[in-house]
């Protein structure tokens, strides 16, 4: 047998072996990890997981397929308030992707989560409102931010601000504090705006000055506790009878922008003292955690941070963990004319400790 | 018949049987959960019964075919099918059943669904309040069908108010409606020729019905504003304020009669302005009346008035029960079903029954058309929903602000009532009726044969209930049937009661056959009832017919009922529970 023939046969065997091995791996059950997310993140988390699973990423020494399943059973605040029943010796997810590190930095030690990646995406809080309402609030030049909002809330009815008699009460929405980290973040920006400081002083929240300032805001906000799901979606469906304006994560506005615009032109603005949701990824790390699980979560984080993963997220109005957005990003580009900005300025408020977060929740939910 | 023809028939019959069997098999298959299915249950609001069975069926069918109905994809490996069973139940009753399952599980009314879909989230908040736990995560209870509560008013009445007060439709609310009430000559002062002096209003039971609860909260808001309340949200201070309660009593005094549920109430309303002038309804019920989908064809258009002071949206939220009878798998499966109901295709279907879609991708279309009396664009002012303890206090206050009733039970004890055990059935009904009535109502008992006798005078039921029971037990048949004389006499007796702030009614239990009336005929009965129509509290007669009734006897009972815009009821023993629920819900 000629040498070239032998080389050819070896080559064929090698290729065949590789294909066979690959096929063998594909037929093996994947290593599936379950990642818990807040229900408000379910759509994009599922899309991200589907894109990741399609990659058929291999992990570990043996090269097993990695797979991720999303579980949106509990809100971030249910986890933070330990209302999930998760324990090492009973059912719990393998990973957790909350919306904000606000809930991870002050997490109970009973939940053995460890950070895999500090941020997979970003979304700042953004004011949004029906333009007719925003125009009245900002008529004298105040920016669309807490002071203008507070003054409108103190007026109680739009009619008192020059609006129509049938516009009713001034109603504001946030994702409800007891269910959402973005709701707590919204309260944090209120406190920071009132104190004109990026570091919120807990004791000042107990003072008469803040109480008097916040009282009308509380009245304007309380109807939002009945707006289940995204307040932006409720406004897109019911118009101003759901809420006149809201302070929500930017991505929630962007995904419902087209339907909101069918109701009325929108106006957006960013709070001067702002919070950015940062979507950290954590792993449930206890004696039963396997290297394979660690590897799958690492691979998932790497995929999310890759160009392909970040493209999926931009399609849901999220900003990449690193880098910015621009005119090539359709959702953002469409919203620029209403006040969305590619580059953000303003000041970032310091992440609160657990006591401050609890106090912020009690401002609305006591 | 030739053999060939016979064979053809046999084959045809076999074919038909096969078709039928096929259908049955399909239904049975669809009704049976697939192997390893996650089974969940839903109890939904009565108005959702229009659309929910079909949606559940299609959801189950998809899983039975191995398809996820939300994604439209084949079930993935390891993905479990979901099987939903559902039924309707009044929101307040179901909420109490769920609360009982937590607090008093041995109660008669206990419910343990996976999903509770009331008409409005008030009930989820109340359930959490009563159980002192987060039985429902209200901020996650997604809406499935929107329906604002509107004040349904006959177009002629609304136009009269607009013309007299010089206001547009959007400027009208409780304030203007009460002006009609205060007008010395009622509707006549508003240009309605031969209009009634009194205004008739009605609403459903706030412990059972969402519309009843929302309308009572709205009444409290209106009364609190009148008493000088300028804040945004009602609190306990307002609810416990006697001036506010007097204001609510004033509105309640317009009540012609109550009703437990909207299901029945919308049929009464459809009779036209002679029956009720305005009434709170969910927008979808108003559309149903205008589309002629109720028992009566409305004589004119009913218009949805969105009160200028504000109203509430009923959002038909899907409350997933967080209790020990639901597992995490079931709760996740429930979310899949909720997602399915919110998809555009389902929302378009739900909209055909008069509900506004919750999915913004579905544009408002039929039957949201002006001809059905609804507003399709523009602002709807909303009221602030009070805190749970305030809503509970408003509910509990109803006992003290509701309009009380005077009811005379008039039992036929003539000889004909001895046949078919008719008197015995009437006695059972009378006893059950007094057992259901609130003790604050005044109830009396009269009987008739050749003559009429009041055996128990009208008095607070708390006072005379023992005597009533004894007298009912001892009733015996005798003599002939002076039905017309007795009815006229009782209507006149009730009409002469001096307390003007009470619902007045005669509950007539008879076999309908008049044999010995000396003074009056059927026309007199109709006339004496109709003569009270202009009173602040007209006397209405609810006839219940016993035994085998021929067409003539039915017509007699129908005419008596029609004179006071009620309907006659059959006293068939199988029907007694329903009839009693219906009648006692009037008061």
How would you describe the overall organization of this protein?
The complex is a heterodimer of chains A (366) and B (587). Chain A is α/β, with parallel strands linked by helices and 366 residues long. Chain A folds into 2 domains: 31-118 and 280-317, Periplasmic binding protein-like II (D-Maltodextrin-Binding Protein, domain 2), CATH 3.40.190.10; 124-276 and 337-362, D-Maltodextrin-Binding Protein, domain 2, CATH 3.40.190. Chain A is 42% helix and 16% strand. Chain A contains 15 helices and 14 strands. Chain A has helices at 3-27, 42-54, 76-80, 102-105, 131-137, 146-155, 181-195, 208-221, 231-238, 250-255, 257-263, 291-305, 307-314, 330-335, 354-362; strands at 31-37, 58-59, 64-71, 95-97, 113-117, 121-130, 172-173, 245-249, 266-269, 273-274, 276-277, 281-284, 319-320, 347-348. Chain A has a 6-stranded mixed β-sheet with strand order 2-3-1-4-12-5. In chain A, strands 6, 7, 8, 9, 11 and 13 form a 6-stranded mixed β-sheet that branches. In chain A, strands 10-14 form a two-stranded parallel ribbon. In chain A, helix 2 runs antiparallel to helix 13 (307-314), helix 6 (146-155) crosses helix 8 and helix 9 (231-238) runs parallel beside helix 11. Chain B is of the alpha/beta class and 587 residues long. Chain B folds into 3 domains: 37-145 and 316-368, Periplasmic binding protein-like II (D-Maltodextrin-Binding Protein, domain 2, 3-Layer(aba) Sandwich); 147-313 and 374-399, Periplasmic binding protein-like II (D-Maltodextrin-Binding Protein, domain 2, 3-Layer(aba) Sandwich), CATH 3.40.190.10; 404-584, von Willebrand factor, type A domain (Rossmann fold). In chain B, 41% of the residues lie in helices and 14% in strands. Chain B has helices at residues 3-31, 52-64, 91-103, 122-131, 155-165, 174-182, 210-226, 236-239, 242-252, 262-269, 283-290, 328-341, 344-351, 388-401, 422-436, 461-473, 483-495, 522-530, 551-563, 576-584, and strands at 38-44, 82-88, 115-117, 147-154, 278-282, 302-305, 313-314, 319-320, 404-412, 442-448, 452-460, 502-510, 539-545, 569-570. In chain B, the strands form 3 sheets. A 6-stranded mixed β-sheet of chain B has the order 11-10-9-12-13-14, with helices on both faces. A 4-stranded mixed β-sheet of chain B has the order 2-1-3-8. In chain B, helix 3 runs parallel beside helix 4, helix 7 (210-226) packs across helix 9 (242-252) and helix 18 runs parallel beside helix 19 (551-563). The N and C termini of chain B lie far apart (65 Å). Chains A and B meet through helix 9 of A and helix 12 of B.
